Amino acid sequence: MNHPKFTTYKHPLKLSGKEMIERAEKFTELIEERRSVRTFSSKAVPVDLIKCCIKAAGASPSGANMQPWYFVVVSDSELKKKIRDAAEAEEHEFYHGKAPAEWLDALAPLGTDESKPFLETAPYLIVIFEKRYVETASREIIKYYYTKESVGIATGILITALHNSGLSTLTHTPSPMNFLNTILNRPHNEKPFLILVAGYADEDTKVPDIKRKELEEIATFI
After folding, report:
1. What is the DSSP letter of 137?
2. What's phi and psi for 73, nearest 5 deg?
3. pTM summary value
4. Which domains, and CATH codes, for the chain?
């Protein structure tokens, strides 16, 4: 049995309790400003910014350190149009038959429908895949564990990193999303997790006037 190698963990920050709380409060203020938007500017975004944010996501914790995520960054206009066409076809089925009435009622305050122009307007679509297994050169199948949990954490860090950099995002999950494997030529061991739309919000962007739950509604301290 191979024993793991360890190295000394050196946290970069040496802070007092007061400094830690101040940093936490500042970070909370930043995150509370985050909103999902559906109208994007076509203004160009430096690809190095996207690369840096994905690198941050790649530092996420994962089950057995298997890092079961893969990011496909789409900026090509033809590919974005193909993705939009396929996504809108699925969304049409959703809004006109597949979705139960209570689901449509829950979505109504957000003003969503089957039209998804942001899939073409935004400069980047970051398509996130979860790797369920890997096949070695000798055709051995190695299963990945806790893939959804791991990819979900990485996606959250990516959204946070993009927001911190000054960009806006939108998570988009048409169902099913198998068309993404075909359009982006991804292998069968990868399952589409979601499309993360990224770019600058349009100057006239409006967002639903919603309220987030208070701390007492989402946490118990015992």
Report:
1. T
2. -95, 115
3. 0.92
4. 37-203 (3.40.109.10)
